[in-house]
Amino acid sequence: MKIIAAIAATAALATAAPAFAGSVEVKYKDLDLSTAAGQAQLEDRLDDAARAVCGMDEIQTGTRIRSREARNCYAGAKAQLSKQIATLAEKQKTAKGG
Question: What are the backbone dihedrals phi and psi of residue 63, each rounded to the nearest 5 degrees, phi first?
């Protein structure tokens, strides 16, 4: 189940950014998503993945401003992933009987 969700998170990144067709695997098996700390750690990992897939950390000669496509990709990926984090956290909480 955790692998499927990680693939779904990766797919969300890829679909959010057709111009940056790429994917990154985000592992979270070691996290307890029923806690705020676990969710925050996953959020950090997903943020790093979204930045990588969308090219937010690529340096462009002559400017520090990210391209519109990279910014739109990143914003879309973050919005989709926030929903997936909430779903995963609820599933873990339910599985634990909480």
Answer: -155, 155
